[in-house]
Amino acid sequence: MSEEKTVKPREAGTYKIVRVQPTPNPDAFQFILNGKAIGDGTKTFDSPEDAVNDILAKALFGIFGIQSIYVKENFVTITKSNTVGWHTLMEKTGHTLEEHLSFYEKGDEPEHAEDISPVLEAFKKEDFFNYDRDRQTEVVNALLDVSIRPALANDGGGINILAIEGKQIKIHYQGACGSCPSSTTGTLQYIEQFLQEAIHSELEVQAS
Q1: CA–CA separation, 165 vs 155, rounded Å?
Q2: Cα–Cα distances in Å, from 57 out to 84, 127, 204?
Q3: Which of 108, 125, 141, 172 would suit a FRET pair with 203, their CA atoms being 20 to 30 Å apart?
């Protein structure tokens, strides 16, 4: 009988950056780590106000030019202001990550992968607008998990749902996707077209 492997939480100072790679957003880089940084879901810090109780985020926002922090699996995506060059930030950002990053047991929102099949198997397009908001959100999350989130994650970003109001779905980009020019054009259009085909042709998707 094989034993299930568990992730051993790492303490601050034990992480090492094994690779730094660009994303489609020139203002965002993925810092790939030598172990998992989070147990489940993702964690996002979009401003210093979000970082009040987090040692790592406070330290990173203390670096002039850092705009957002996105933690997922074994990487941290850092997005900077376009007024500051990476040559002034890269070394200090990497050092700060290795010094202050400790394992997050869980993120701001859990992964939905385990719920994908049951949700979509029971879903009928014609019933969507009769669902309550929680059920609508479950369906949209399941659809995003299947076709949108994996690709965004590969590029160091993510997406979450802010609200569903009538035929309008409001989303928020995370990580590298937040300030990427393609997120407000091609990517957003692709998401809207995908959800229109999967749910209803009159759906609109807005990013904020």
Answers
A1: 29
A2: 19, 42, 33
A3: 108
Angstrom distance (rounded) from CA 111 to CA 59: 27
Residue 147: which CATH number? 3.30.300.130
Residue 117 CA: distances (Å) to CA of 127, 128, 179, 196: 17, 17, 32, 20
- Quick one: tokens of 70? 């996105």
Q: CA–CA separation, 159 vs 184, rounded Å?
A: 13
Give tens-digit pLDDT for 10-21: 677 789 999 998
12 located within any domain? no
- Whether 179 has a pLDDT exceeding 70, the answer reads no
3-state DSSP assignment of residue 39: coil
Residue 161, both tokens: 């749902």
> Where is average pLDDT lowest: 134-138, 147-151, 168-172, 189-193?
147-151
What are the CA-CA distances from residue 25 to residues 78, 153, 175 (Å)?
Answer: 11, 13, 10
How far is it, in rounded angstroms, from Cα 27 to Cα 53? 26
Containing structural domain, residue 71: 17-100
Pull the structure tokens for residue 84. Answer: 């500051």
Structure tokens at 127: 């019933």
Residues 134 and 176 in one domain: yes
Give CA–CA dist 153/98, Å, rounded.
22
C-alpha span between 93 and 73 (Å, rounded): 19
